[in-house]
Design goal:
This protein has about 500 residues and is α+β, with helices and mostly antiparallel strands. The chain has a domain at about 210-240 and about 270-480: Penicillin V Acylase, Chain A, CATH 3.60.60. It has 16 helices and 18 strands. It has helices at about 1-15, 75-85, 85-105, 110-115, 120-130, 140-150, 155-180, 180-200, 300-310, 315-325, 385, 390-395, 400-420, 425-430, 440-445, 490-495; strands at about 30, 40, 45-55, 55-60, 65-70, 215-220, 230-235, 250-255, 260-265, 275, 280-285, 330-340, 345-350, 355, 375, 460-470, 475-480, 485-490. Strands 3-4-5-8-9-10-11-12-13-14 form a ten-stranded mixed sheet. Strands 15-6-7-16-17-18 form a six-stranded antiparallel sheet. A hairpin with a 3-residue loop joins strand 10 (about 275) and strand 11 (about 280-285). Helix 13 runs antiparallel to helix 14 (about 425-430).
């Protein structure tokens, strides 16, 4: 019975989390420009408009990067999205979740027996998401309806809802179980981590973390950077299910209500995992497990909360309040910044608690103790939030937090502190990309994540981004690690209309 319960719980979260398909060459070439901080700027990349729908259009540059431009009402932007990214939306709402749940288990993703279970778990996930639907602002529900209508008869509103809300729907049920039932299961893994691996670091390669999503992130500004500007780095470590890296693209949105923004997304997502708006506000979220959840009362999912902050916030305080007041059901760590001040903060949240870590504050276990720097990975640092997280499962191998998260946090902060006061955009990209293969092979000698190998051409597990929000610039690395970074300027993107490309 326990084996059946464990399998069912794992499949539930796998069915709803976002994730690997054939290769598409992404990235635009970079070259150094003399003067200033020696920023790497993109070589001019010829663009071609490959499709249009209303005021929206899809561009492809000479390096194979796709840029999705959306404009109008929520439904209009959703419809444009569905029409222009029809294939990607179908893949992300059908094949992706179907392949994801065996991928998370490390099982054969083509197993007929496993795939036959998908309709059952899909139905469970959809029912949970429909129960949470009322907490999603109407504008985002309208945009999801637009995506479904634009993508055609093979995509339903429920498909799009599951893709966007399924992360929080299943996490709200799974987290309490992992941190109760999982406490007992994690005892032997805790012993292995804290005792055996400390004495035998060479054996760590056989003790991989369970491959759930994880993240690394920082904001540095003022005295921490070369010229005082704000830089926000974000490394999204996501499960790709063998396909998602080939559908990642850049979205430039001009909604009728709120502020224009830019972000990397997967087709079908109305919510976003990170982004920057025209007011110099940036926001992204990192996974963290906490006992403070609402397993039977799901609320507004994290992708919608980040989207709400990016689309509707003009100041840092306003963004923090939107996170604080959002109807939450599970724990997340949000990193937010405002280039106008400049300033940034880490907002540690659970279903009922919100604690803000400002740069000038210091807590036990906090490494980035500088007045113009904040950083986060996948564990709480505020003492109140730690109480909802720590236990045997924290030190076990059940997820990407715990000791794996602490190792990434310590290494990231060490890189930041070593360059503190001299960090520019070029250096910031190198710092946030510290796991870039084959670097990881010699860096992560213990508590390693099984996704990363010495293969320098392997898939990027999500997207690595750097926002220079004082200049409204964004760099991103996605697709495959042997592709170059791409660069966009939000002001320039908003001035484009796709004519004459």
């Amino acid at each position: 019975m326990r084996r059946i319960l464990s399998l069912a719980l794992t499949l539930l979260i796998a069915a709803a989390l976002p994730g690997e398909l054939p290769a598409v060459a992404y990235g635009s070439s970079l070259h150094p420009e003399a003067g200033g901080d020696n920023l790497c700027l993109p070589l001019p990349a010829e663009r071609t408009v490959v499709a249009r729908c209303g005021e929206g259009y899809l561009e492809e540059d000479s390096q194979g990067n796709l840029i999705l431009h959306l404009k109008g009402s929520p439904y209009e932007m959703g419809y444009q999205h569905g029409v222009l990214c029809k294939e990607g939306v179908e893949k992300m709402t059908h094949e992706y979740p179907e392949q994801l749940f065996p991928s998370l288990l490390g099982l054969n993703t083509t197993s007929p027996r496993l795939l036959s279970l998908w309709p059952f778990f899909r139905k469970l996930g959809v029912n949970r998401c429909l129960a949470m639907e009322k907490y999603i602002p109407e504008e985002y529900r309208e945009e999801m309806r637009g995506i479904a209508d634009g993508a055609g008869e093979n995509v339903t509103y429920e498909d799009v809802l599951l893709l966007n809300e399924g992360i929080d729907a299943t996490s709200s049920m799974l987290y309490p179980l992992l941190l109760t039932y999982g406490e007992v299961v994690s005892i032997p893994f805790t012993f292995r981590n804290l005792v055996y691996l400390q004495r035998n670091p060479a054996a760590a390669g056989a003790a991989s973390s369970f491959p759930l999503p994880a993240c690394n992130e920082f904001v540095v500004f003022g005295n921490g950077t070369e010229d005082g500007r704000l830089l926000h780095g974000r490394d999204l470590m996501w499960n790709l299910a063998g396909m998602a890296q080939d559908y990642m693209l850049v979205r430039v949105a001009e909604p009728d209500e709120g502020y224009p923004f830019i972000s990397t997304i997967l087709p079908g997502f109305v919510g976003t995992l990170d982004g920057m708006n025209s007011q110099g506000i940036t926001c992204a979220a990192n996974l963290v497990l906490s006992r403070d959840c609402l397993p039977l009362k799901g609320r507004m999912g994290m992708p919608f909360i980040v989207r709400d902050v990016v689309q509707h916030s003009a100041t840092l305080d306003e963004g923090i309040e939107r996170i604080r007041n959002a109807p939450r059901s599970v724990s997340w760590i949000y990193v937010i910044s405002d280039a106008k001040i400049p300033d940034g903060a880490v907002v540690e949240t659970s279903a009922h608690l919100v604690r803000v870590r400002a740069p000038e504050e210091e807590y036990r276990g906090q490494v980035e103790q500088e007045p113009c720097l904040v950083a986060a990975t996948n564990h709480f640092i505020h003492p109140t939030m730690k109480l909802t997280e720590r236990g045997f499962s924290y030190y076990g191998r059940a997820y990407g937090g715990g000791l794996n998260s602490e190792w990434r946090y310590d290494h990231l902060c060490a890189e930041l502190l070593q360059s503190y006061g001299e960090i520019n955009a070029t250096g910031a990209r190198e710092i946030i990309d510290f796991l870039h293969p084959p670097n990881y092979e010699h860096l992560a000698f213990k508590f390693r994540n099984p996704w990363y190998t010495a293969n320098a051409s392997q898939a990027v597990y999500g997207a690595i981004s750097l926002f220079d929000s004082s200049r409204l610039e964004m760099w991103a690395l996605y697709g495959y690690y042997d592709r170059p970074w791409v660069h966009y300027n939000l002001t320039e993107e908003l001035a484009r209309d796709g004519e004459g490309d």
